[in-house]
Amino acid sequence: MKSIFKLLLLCFSASIVAQNTTEANVVQKSLDKKIEMMKTSLVKNVKFTNIGPTVMSGRVSDVSVNPKNSTEFYVGYASGGLWYTNNNGTTFTPVLDNSPTQNIGDIAVDWNNGTIWVGTGEKNSSRSSYAGIGMLKSTDKGKTWQNVGLLDSHHISRILINPENSNEVIVGVIGHLYSPNEERGIFKTVDGGKTWTKSLFINNDTGVIDVAVAPENFNVMYAASWERERKAWNFDGDGSNSAIYKSTDAGSSWTKISDKSGFPTGNGVGRIGLAVFNENTVYALHDSQFRRKKDTSKKPSDELTKEDFKTMSSAAFLELSDKKLNTYLKNNGFQEKYRAQNVKQMVRVGSVKPIDLAKYLEDANSMLFDTQVIGAEVFKTTNGGKSWKKTHDNFLDGVYSSYGYYFGEIRVDLQDENGIYVLGVPIIKSKDGGKTFTSISKENVHSDHQALWVNPKKSGHILNGNDGGLNLSYDDGENWIKLNDPAVGQFYSVYADNQKNYKVYGGLQDNGVWVASNNARINKGWQQSGQNPYKSIMGGDGMQVQVDDRNPNIVYTGYQFGNYSRIDTETGRSKYIQPKHTLGENPYRFNWQTPIHLSKHNQDILYLGGNKLHRSLDQGNNWETISGDLTTGGKKGNVAYGTLTSISESPFQFGLLYVGSDDGYINVTKNGGGSWARISNNLPQNLWVTRVIASKFKKERVYATLNGYRSDDFTPYVFVSENYGQTWTNIGNAIPTSSVNVIKEDSSNENILYVGTDNGLYISFDRGNSWEAFANNLPNVAVHDLVIQPTAKHLIVGTHGRSLYKADVSALQNIDKSVMSAATHIFDVKSVRKSGSWGRSWSMWRDAFTPEITIPFYSNSDKKVTLDIYTNDIKVNTIVLDATKGYNEAIFDVSFSKKGKKAYEKANKKSSLKAAKNGVIYLPKGKYTVKSATSKSEFEIK
Asked: Rounded CA gap, 515 and 495, in Å?
């Protein structure tokens, strides 16, 4: 029945899907376009600096360990690229930064010749599982990469290399996450990726989630197909086409072996993971979406439960004793105003029904089932898949929670047939073939486990990848070492407060909210002091942050689905402040990334968006709802939908508010919520509004970015309106194809805009008429959020895969038409303070400290530029360098040239210039001027 329904739905919507889904050749052309833009970018010399954190990592996709040297391995992160270590994880080096993507599903290394294969596009089907661009291959250990095909695969699950023939490779492809496609199944190459043969294909909605090979025979393989469909409002991770297949000819052909074998079949079959011990002995981990049988046993007490009210009549409700009803109300956290007597009165007059006492406790963001699903279960075959038997009698509760589709990995110890590991929220192991399990999660091991390497030569030596990074154990999980060195955090949001030495806040996927000073040193020094510069202030999936400008200790932040709190970081006190619907009202819907906004007009006023907009006039203590439902009304499904995603208040007028929703609506109110107008009717429809931003330069101006990622539409939708949203102009056409997450106005230059996409950052100097790639030291990674600290003039970039980056944009803020037309324009040069440490080292084992001044300048063409440094009319040094068109930097070591020293001493006969310990003669205190043929700028040595 499910298949018939999906076929009818496909026929009905085929034209829509075909129009909206971005084709692989369009993506490839856009990647080529970005490469060219990076070469000619006016800001290619503005370098970003990664500012961490490293103590909290990101989601691992896979690991590959050298079988002859276990201290050498690669780690693939879901959206953070590929990293290499040859010192057992003490340090890591990124090796995918020069490729067009950082999104990884699986990795494989031919350790015989060093060839690396990367299957791009994460295998997990989560809300931030970014699509890839096919198969990447490197034959020089990551110095260069070649795309060898499967461009439309989007998500690749597994890569197997024939140990006897490096050109023979098997690839499992899950396929598109949000749309049907043909390039899914199993693909095989025998010529190193020059050509591919599709050896297993089920249908356009079913891909392959796992492929495992018999360790002693590459001809024998097992594969797991997975029928799944994700929409913005629903995830369906099971189906009758999910099954197990077998090949006996090295993946050239496949036979379905799970039917009539004892392995589950039907519409409840979910994701399957495989672990092969030998040709005939295989373990299968199954996410069973079949429902458990209802527990008909008697309740342990006569206390009221939520279920009682779902079928209770009004008459029966009124017969309840006040004591019994009050016990239910108090135990379930009902507000003080809801007590037995007044609730009964509400039922009497018909304003509330008994079922509302159940609905009041229910979360509109999740689908409620009468009974649980079976969840994780382990099966085993000892006859090559002819028959399968479940290894355990009990339920493996807590292993998958409610999202088994997010896991699915199982491993077997090749030294011990009965030693298996199951990866889920915890990581559990069994030493009796899956009959019983024990947890090996420890206090320094993050939950949600995604990858595991089990040393095939030494039992107990395991390498675990999870949502918090990487862990290593030599005693089978009794103790773990944390190997979090790369900065690969997956940030949803970033915020900078207004202190002089400002702090940076950010919310991370599954890793809470962290804060640090913007100039914190990101190194291993904290392991000596015991104090990491980054501090955690919130758990869960970290979300947006707002800080009171009057008191930087007052922080508003939270975790997924609108669970926000007001925190006093000085006292450590926290108050939960999520708005609550009233009894009888439908529960509010909150987005995974629920937006909040602290009014600049009054810092006691806080806005929070559900499906309605809520406002607090007293820091979140009390709430009023200032709108009706500002979405399409939601859709039936198991993912929150029909929710607000963005809030912006105009700095020109209190109560001039814009909100955007995940279903494509943008609404505006000019009177603080007294009335609302929809302003998105002439924009592309049914897209996710990632940002709506009221301009700080013009009251009537508003920007909007829309995102089609959740329909596999990667078009960059960026719009501006000059009349409160009555009409819109598309300013995103020049941006290479990639979904847009954020737009930001510059803090001081009206013409400068910044846009973050799923594949990098762009800047415009003409309000969107043209765009420049902004990518020096910033890899092709998803940019989720941007903030500008206006006093420091720093741009902070929150990436979903490579943590936080910072760049000084003070010079860029001065770029205008006159600067661009000048042959050379020297921007402001920052002064420096003279120090006795110049040219000295505090240890014979350390290099001498060398001062530097950065001289920023703009050149209108590629040419050789000469910069002369003067004190009064005396030229003390000259810098000659090859400049490129756009922004450039010259680094000056604050020293005399030989000619400059002579000229200075001639004019200042009483001066006494002495060389520093390193032999360099540095400039004395005073004022200096940097000159080019057409421009000059002053600085001071204080």
From this structure: 9
CA distance 692 to 718: 10
Write the CB contacts of 124 (distance below 8 Å, at least 6 apart in sequence): 59, 61, 78, 405, 406, 450
Structure-derived torsion over alpha carbons of residues 422, 427, 432, 433, reported in degrees to the nearest 10: 0
Nearest to 932 by CA among 860, 804, 847, 826: 826
User: CB-side exposure of 465: number of CA atoms within 13 Å?
Assistant: 26
Q: Which two tokens stand for residue 493?
A: 């949001």
CB count within 10 Å of CB 933 equals 11
Please give the Cα distance from 816 to 839 (Å, whole number): 39
Mention every residue, 6+ apart, whose C-beta is less than 8 A from residue 886: 41, 42, 43, 44, 45, 772, 858, 859
Question: Is the C-alpha dihedral spanning 64, 67, 69, 71 positive or negative?
Answer: positive
Distances from the Cα of 695 to the Cα of 650, 659, 682, 706, angstroms: 7, 14, 20, 17
**Phi, psi values for residue 15, rounded to 5°:** -65, -35
What is the C-alpha separation between 786 and 690, in angstroms, rounded? 12
DSSP 380: E
Q: Are the beta carbons of 822 and 851 closer than 8 angstroms?
A: no
Rounded-to-integer distance, Cα 71 and Cα 134, Å: 29
Q: Pick the closest to residue 218 from 157, 299, 164 (CA basis).
A: 164
Residue 508 identity:
L
* 53 upstream amide cis, omega within 30 of 0: yes
Q: How confident is the model at residue 10 (pLDDT cuts 50, 70, 90)?
A: very low
Backbone angles phi, psi at 812, to 5 degrees: -60, -35
Q: Which residues pair with 188 in a beta bridge?
A: 170, 197
Q: Tell me if residue 7 falls in helix, strand or coil.
A: helix
d(CA 408, CA 174): 13
Residue-by-residue DSSP string for 543-589: --EEE-TT-TTEEEEEETTTEEEEEETTTTEEEE----PPTTSPPPP
pLDDT of residue 367: 40
Do 172 and 271 contact (CB within 8 A), yes or no? no
SS3 state at 820: helix
Per mean pLDDT, which range of 429-438, 637-646, 689-698, 804-813 is the poorest? 637-646
Among 773, 859, 793, smallest CA distance to 33 is for 773
Three-state secondary structure call for residue 407: coil
Helix ranges (DSSP H) in 21-76: 24-40
The pLDDT > 90 percentage for the chain reads 88
Query: Bridge partners of 868?
Result: 878, 931
What is the rounded CA–CA span in Å between residue 496 and residue 389? 55
Tokens of 276: 């092969």
The helix/strand/coil state of 172 is strand
pLDDT at position 300 is: 59
HEC profile of 324-339: HHHHHHHHCCCCCCCC
Please state, in angstroms and rounded to a whole number, the distance separating the CA atoms of residues 20 and 790. 39
Reading the block at residue 103, the tokens are 């999104």
378 and 262 Cβ atoms separated by less than 8 Å: no
Give dist(CA 814, CA 761) in Å, integer: 20
Is 730:719 a contact under the CB 8 Å cutoff?
yes
- Please report, to the nearest 10 degrees, the dihedral formed by the alpha carbons of residues 765, 768, 773, 775 taken in order: 80
- DSSP-based three-state secondary structure for 49: strand
Tokens of 510: 């599954």
Euclidean distance between CA atoms 409 and 393, whole angstroms = 20
| Contact assessment for residue 574 and residue 598, using Cβ atoms and an 8 Å cutoff | no
pLDDT digits (tens, 9 = 90+) for 224-236: 999 999 999 999 9
All residues at 6 or more sequence positions from 473 whose CB lies less than 8 Å from its CB, including other chains: 440, 460, 461, 462, 463, 464, 479, 480, 481
Confirm if 510 and 541 have CB atoms less than 8 A apart. yes
